[in-house]
Amino acid sequence: MTDIILSGCSGKMGAAVLSCAAARSDCRVVAGVDLFAPKDPDYTYAASFSELDVMADVIIDFSNPAVLDDMLDYAKEHSLPCIICTTGYDEEQKAKIAEASKSVPVFYSGNMSLGINLIIELAKKAASVFGEDFDVEIVEQHHNQKLDAPSGTALMIADAVASVKPDSEYVYDRHSYRKKRDKREIGIHSVRGGNIVGEHEIIFAGTDEVLKISHSAHSKTVFAVGALNAAVFIVGKKPGMYNMSDLLAEK
Fold first, then answer.
1. Is 183 a known active-site residue?
2. pLDDT tens digit string along 142-198?
């Protein structure tokens, strides 16, 4: 049994993780951390990591970038692996995550969905085949409460495409200048509205043909399941950075 500390236990993703964990026999949430107290929790609750005192095997984080320092300090102090699912980190914070992975195992992904990680591989393959003959545009859609834009997943897709197109340049907005599209550009566009869980589309536009690869998440359950699978996977691993590709390799 894998015992989990859930950071962000009172949020919508926290609720999804709790629900999915309750239906499994290989893991359980034994503690939750959130500034906002949950109602009648059946696990140990603390408002911050500095107030937490519980035995566990791994941390799952679906919270806020502001929590990162305290969470990483706690993880290193207690030698706990981390599943980091929060998005919106700046470059300095990403460097802190990489530094922490030298001490503890860190599973870091902007999206925990199996389907998303598959289309990322497909996008990389398409980019390598098409080269500069096709323009690449990424469109992501999320609910109107999402704070960061573009999404972490859109950036994951862009990074995958850029890995086979090394001179790529990310372009987020074209209204401020008038010029033809450069072949090096990867356009990234964000839509925020309603309660859209998550929509991502990669457009490869060539001469007289267009290829589109898309993924739709219909509920937050897909992300919760992925995070729990990652938590079970990472326990016992050596310090280092891990992602969905490592998990899929063991299947």
1. no
2. 999 998 899 988 999 999 999 999 899 999 988 888 889 989 999 999 999 999 989
Cα–Cα separations (whole angstroms), residue 226 to 72, 183, 195, 230, 239:
21, 35, 21, 6, 20
Q: For residues 24 and 42, what is the distance between their CA atoms, to the nearest angstrom?
A: 16
Active-site residue, selected from the candidate residues 142, 165, 200, 215: 142
Residue 168 CB neighbours (<10 A): 19
| Whether residue 38 has a cis bond before it, omega within 30° of 0 | no
Active site residue 146: yes
Q: 3-state SS of the chain?
A: CEEEEEECCCCHHHHHHHHHHHCCCCEEEEEEECCCCCCCCCCEEECCHHHCCCCCCEEEECCCHHHHHHHHHHHHHHCCCEEECCCCCCHHHHHHHHHHCCCCEEEECCCCCHHHHHHHHHHHHHHHHHHHHCEEEEEEEECCCCCCCCCHHHHHHHHHHHCCCCCCEEECCCCCCCCCCCCCEEEEEEEECCCCCEEEEEEEECCCCEEEEEEEECCCHHHHHHHHHHHHHHCCCCCEEECHHHHHHCC
From the candidates 76, 78, 146, 237, which is the catalytic residue? 146
Please choose, from the candidates 44, 41, 60, 62, the residue with its C-alpha nearest in 3D space to the C-alpha of residue 52: 44
pLDDT digits (tens, 9 = 90+) for 92-122: 999 999 999 999 999 998 788 888 888 998 9
Q: Are 104 and 239 in contact (CB under 8 A)?
A: yes
CA distance 58 to 80: 5
